Structures are given as structure tokens and as C-alpha cells.
Amino acid sequence: MALVRGRAASSTLLKRFLFPPVASPSHRNLSSVAKDLPQHASRESTMNQIFGLDISSQIGSSMPLSAMRIGTIIHNIEMRPGQGGKFARSAGTSAKILKEPTSRYVLVKLPSGVQKLIDTKCQATIGAVANAGHGAKKLRKAGQSRWLGIRPKVRGVAMNPVDHPHGGGEGKSKSGGSHGRGSLTPWGKPTKCGYKTGPLKRRK
């Protein structure tokens, strides 16, 4: 509620000082012109107060990174100007501006901990993504994961030798000698040590 009141007050002040009521020329005299002179000075000071408000009153606003300041919590960050949000879009995630965006690039700390230089023309939204407890939510039953499109996963060591290279044997073994075999795919190809399973590129 306080956030809504702060936004309403800032917008009211902004409209009041950007578009003041103008009297008709017929009723205007020298005294009114003299009174308007300090009004312009007060308008500039009020504008400085409006733009100097706490950044928390602008949560949910989307703007270029160049218009933000150091320490701002942001999300939905573009990687290139006009491309659309790419970083910090999952539930409960946020990024942080580490350096003042005065040059072409600004240093941003992403949710993974990586510090990345991003163009200051890129747009971002102030604040963090809602629903931070999404990752801690537990499914009530097996059928609930099926509702989400997640199918069951059967381990290879629980299968028979005809179904998987890890199948068969006594106990939890991978059916290969005293030390077992390396991890394999269901089609017999190694899955570790960077073994390339895709088609080889044509050599020139």
C-alpha cells in the first residue's frame, strides 16, 4: 500500500509541475509575472526531488541500464538492445548492478554469481521476480509431476542386460568385471570424459 501511495504521489507531483495551470493573457499583469519567476526555481527543485526518490518506489518500472544507479536490484535484463529480456527471469531470481553505469558498459552480477558487462542501452526491470518459494515447493504425489509433463525415469542398473548396458548382475553393479564398467548410454556409447557422441565434422 505504501508503494502504491508513493507512486501516486510522485506522478501527481510530476503532472503538477510539468503542466501547471496557465492563466489567460487578459488577466495577466506584471505582478503575476513577478510571482512566476520564483515558481520556476521551485519547480526545478521539486523535479530534482522527484528524480531523487528512493529506487524502491520505482519497482516494476522498465528502463535502460544507463538510467539506473549502483546497487539496484533488477531482473528481465536484455543481452543486446531491443532483443528482449534474457537474464534473471526465473521465479525469485534477481541481478545487481555493481558499478555506476557511466560508460558504454555496466557490470552486472547475475543470479549464477557470474559478473557480466552489459550494454547500458539494454532495458531491465527494477526489482526481483516474484514467487521466490517456487523451487522449495514439494509435489504431493507422483501424479502431480505427471500433470507437469514429467515422465518417470528408470535407472539403467535396475534393468535387465537386454534393456541397458548397466543392467543385470548381483546387487548394484554395472555388469562388468570386478571394478564395473564406465557409464554408458542405452546404446552403448560412453557418457563421460568428453566422449563425442555426435556425427564427426567433415575435415577439409
Can you offer a commentary on this structure?
It is a single chain. With 204 residues, the protein is α+β, with helices and mostly antiparallel strands. The chain has 3 helices and 8 strands, in the order ααββββββββα. It has a 6-stranded antiparallel beta sheet, with no helix packed on it. Strands 3-4 form a two-stranded antiparallel sheet. Helix 1 (2-18) runs antiparallel to helix 2. The longest helix has 22 residues, at 30-51.
Residues in helix, % = 10-25%
Strand content: 5-15%
What strand order characterises the main sheet? Answer: 1-8-2-5-6-7
How confident is the prediction overall: mean pLDDT?
Answer: 78
Strand runs, count: 8
Number of helices: 3
Largest sheet: 6 strands, antiparallel
Backbone structural class: alpha+beta
Q: Span from first to last CA?
A: 67 Å
Ranges where pLDDT stays below 50 over 5 or more residues in a row are 23-35
SSE inventory with pairings:
Layout: H1 2-18, H2 30-51, E1 62-64, E2 73-75, E3 77-78, E4 85-87, E5 95-97, E6 105-109, E7 115-119, E8 123-126, H3 142-147
